[in-house]
Write a structure and sequence with these properties.
The chain folds into four domains: 182 residues, 3-Layer(aba) Sandwich (Rossmann fold), CATH 3.40.50.300; 62 residues, Helicase, Ruva Protein, domain 3 (Orthogonal Bundle); 115 residues, Zinc Finger, Delta Prime, domain 3, CATH 1.20.272; 117 residues, no CATH class. Helix content is 55%, strand content 7%. The strands form three sheets. The chain has a five-stranded parallel β-sheet with strand order 4-5-6-3-7, covered by helices on one side. A two-stranded antiparallel sheet has the order 1-2. The longest helix is centred in the C-terminal third of the chain and has 24 residues. Bound molecules: zinc ion. Zinc ion binds next to α4.
Length: 501
């Protein structure tokens, strides 16, 4: 379970005459080096300074945000012979030994491969031996959520009352998989995802120090792709430079990362939003030729449509879109003016459906192209308020027509007569059935359906009028007062519908 001492390692664990990846070379050595984790770092440092270090910690957060690094810094800080304001000196005997993974008092356990009860029993026995050299014996249990329930239960007693010289640090990406009984015995620290700006600022200095050439745009692309994980970002830089040497263009970076560079992405999305299906498909095929994976293109497209919808609704507020470069935000704003908010929602749902289809289908490219055609055929939607006001306009013009032909000011034909004399609130019923027809349970419906309904409503009105003029009225005509009451009934009826809308 203990790490095997490796005498070839010197200083901060760098093997002689061998290339060290950036993520290892730049591993944080002091609390201040933990980029984007200022709160956790400050709290831990204060605990060390005031000598009030808990006996068990739980470090949670997504991968590469600094959990294990923080655990190692804390381990050195509590055991350092010459601590510097709560930070480890990284030079004394204890610090050096821990850095070289040569200390017998620091035991790192990878719970993914030592998850069984027998491993924990061994740990419980070892806990009873006092530290060989250091002040504290520290167990760092990485990927702690991988331990079995029996292992966790076997740990409970030790965790509750460990010997005074023992400390536990659990690190996990999935805290919800840790039993509450364990969590309640630990001091919990949530490590946040590092913001793109903080990460890019740090990587810019790294790139400069390493004499590499990467634009700020390329660095931000790397940061976005790493979703707040510094280790992933450093690994990506290593990968890019081992492919291209000491410099790389933005396009090359995008290609290696398997993401779309802004130029191709915006050209593709513009063609899509303008419903130019041929152009959009040709851009899509070009992306394929350049080796972009269909799933990557789709996930980028979903992200882009979401951002356009947000920019459309919230406006170009840089404070809300800190992760987006200013010139990209400008383009998002221009794109958002091409389509309506409803169309963006429709496109988003088509893409979500496409994602489901692509999971099941072996023909992902075909599915994608069909979805492009589907997006190009989207019709703008008409909202329910517009539909209702359109109906009211038709009825008003019809009423005006009637009053003109009959030359009476006090008697106005109500909508009640349209559907026959059986029910005195048939006007309301008619509106009710119309709402049903037009899909009133949904706030919006397809434009063509509405147009057809409106057309049929007009025809109905047109055919009803001459019939009424010829017939003698089957029941007394409504006075203006009665009519207004019926209208109120209609509105209250519509209001009743609203909760279901
Ligand atoms: Zn030290």
């Amino acid at each position: 379970m203990c790490r095997i001492p490796q005498p070839l390692f010197v200083n901060i664990g760098i093997p002689l005459m061998s290339y060290v990846v950036l993520a290892r070379k730049l591993r944080p050595s002091r609390f201040d080096d933990l980029i984007g984790q200022e709160t956790a770092a400050q709290t831990l440092r204060n605990a060390v300074l005031s000598d009030r270090v808990a006996h068990a910690f739980l470090f949670t957060g997504s991968r590469g945000v600094g959990k294990t690094s923080a655990a190692r810094i804390l381990t050195r800080a509590v055991n350092c012979l010459n601590p510097d304001n709560g930070d480890p000196c990284n030079r004394c005997e204890n610090c050096t030994e821990i850095n070289q993974n040569a200390s017998a008092d620091v035991i790192e356990i990878d719970a993914a491969s030592n998850r069984g009860i027998e491993n924990i029993r061994e740990l419980r026995e070892n806990v009873n031996y006092v530290p060989a050299k250091c002040r504290y014996k520290i167990y760092i249990i990485d990927e702690a959520h991988m331990l079995t329930l029996e292992s966790f239960n076997a740990l409970l007693k030790t965790l509750e009352e460990p010997p005074p010289y023992v400390k536990f640090i659990f690190a996990t990406t999935d805290p919800h998989k840790i039993p509450p009984t364990i969590i309640s015995r630990c001091q919990r620290y949530d490590f946040l995802r590092i913001s793109i700006k903080k990460m890019a600022d740090f990587l810019e200095t790294v790139v400069k120090n390493e004499n590499l050439e990467l634009s700020r745009k390329a660095i931000e692309m790397i940061c976005r792709n790493s979703v707040g994980g510094m280790r992933d970002a450093l690994t990506a830089i290593d990968q890019i430079l081992s492919f291209t040497g000491t410099s790389a263009t933005d396009q090359k970076v995008a290609q290696i990362l398997g993401i779309l560079d802004s130029e191709s992405r915006f050209a593709f999305i513009e063609a899509l939003l303008e419903k130019k299906d041929g152009e959009a498909i040709s851009y899509f095929q070009k992306l394929q030729e350049h080796g972009h994976d269909v799933n990557d293109v789709l996930s980028d497209l979903l992200q882009t449509i979401k951002t356009i919808a947000l920019v459309r609704t919230l406006g170009m507020n840089q404070a809300l879109f800190q992760d987006i470069p200013a010139d990209d935000l400008e383009t998002f704003s221009t794109l958002s003016k091409i389509v309506s908010a409803d169309e963006l929602q429709q496109i988003f749902h088509i893409l979500l459906e496409l994602e489901e289809q692509m999971k099941r289908s072996a023909h992902t490219k075909i599915c994608f192209e069909m979805a492009i055609l589907q997006i190009a055929s989207i019709e703008p939607l008409i909202g329910l308020p517009e539909i209702i006001s359109e109906i009211q306009n038709i009825r008003k013009s019809k009423s005006a027509g009637n009053s003109n032909t009959e030359n009476t000011d006090s008697v106005i034909e109500g909508p009640a007569e349209l559907s026959g004399p059986e029910k005195d609130n048939s006007g309301a019923n008619q509106q009710h059935s119309f709402l049903k027809m037009s899909g009133a349970h949904k706030p919006l419906t397809d434009a063509t359906v509405i147009k057809n309904i409106l057309k049929s409503d007009k025809t109905e009105l047109a055919t009803a009028e001459p019939a009424k003029l010829n017939e003698s009225s089957p029941e007394p005509k409504m006075t203006e007062k009665q009519h207004s009451v019926t209208n109120q009934d209609n509105y209250s009826h519509v209001d009743e519908e609203k909760p279901y809308v």
